[in-house]
Amino acid sequence: MKDAMDALSAFISDHESLVRVTAFVGGVLLFGGFESLRPRQSPKPNRKKRWLVNYALTLLNFGTLHLVFPLLAVGAAVQAAAYGWGLFNRMPVAPAVAGLIGILLLDLVIYWQHRLFHRIPILWRLHRMHHSDTAIDVSTALRFHPLEIMLSMAVKMATVVILGVPPVAVIIFEALLNFSAMFNHANWNLGERTDRVLARVLVTPDMHRIHHSVRPEMHTNFGFFLSIWDHLFGTRKTEPDVPHAVMAIGLESWRGAKDHRLDRLLIQPLLRDAGENV
């Protein structure tokens, strides 16, 4: 068993790009296909324009992130391991245990980061671009402002170095985060019973769709991968105020056609919302 785990760890480490690309492309194709076959909400007429903008943001964020942070979180983990930085690199902890705990703690950090982005006005101005989408589907999982992406990466890198998370665990976490984000943003009708059962452990489409509805529901269900944090910290909302099939998605004050052009989205943090109350 140990030999098999070591072989798997070595494969993931040696094929980082393959693991990440497979998780990304697989998530887009898999959940994009499921939401087309069995949508939870009727697709909006402007779907192709939304996709074009959201996927353009993906390319922009990818290029910007690699320009600003050439090492990224995995590189930070490699450096931490090489120099003995971080908690796990200074303790007699088995790599598998350190990796599992590291993944759990990284998910917890992302949960609290998400909550702060909703509560601190200057951070909300960056994050609200994600919430200004007028529908929710797989492409929404990729709709983030470049500055938010860079801040999030800085937080992950700091967490990885402080904890000394093993590099292979960081690779797995990044792949899980991308894959689960596309899963829980998908406009996919799993069936209410299936969704409810899965939501005991994972953040599901119905659970996260509530987070993308109008205020005050928008300030619930902050998890991205595991749902335990919302249960534990009292931010879990099980049922929406309005049924999922007809639930309004997005921020009411950002519904104009021009608000969803790529150039307008990039400058949105500089624009004031007169009716906003974070």
Give short descriptive properties of this protein.
60% helix; 278 residues; mainly alpha
Mean pLDDT: 91
In the predicted model, the low-confidence regions spanning at least 5 consecutive residues are none
**What's the shape?**
globular
SS element count, helices = 12
Task: Give the SSE string.
Answer: HHHHHHHHHHHH
Helix amount, in percent? Answer: 55-70%
Strand content: under 5%
Radius of gyration: 19 Å
Strands, count: 0
Distance between the termini: 50 Å
Biggest sheet details:
none
Secondary-structure class: mainly alpha
Total tally of structural domains: 1
Task: Write the SSE topology.
Layout: H1 2-14, H2 16-37, H3 47-68, H4 72-83, H5 95-119, H6 121-131, H7 146-163, H8 167-185, H9 192-198, H10 205-211, H11 228-232, H12 262-267
Helix pairs in contact: 1-8, 2-8, 3-7, 4-7, 4-8, 5-6, 5-7, 5-8
Could you give a quick summary of the protein structure above?
By secondary structure, this protein is mainly α. It contains 12 helices and no strands. The chain has helices spanning 2-14, 16-37, 47-68, 72-83, 95-119, 121-131, 146-163, 167-185, 192-198, 205-211, 228-232, 262-267.
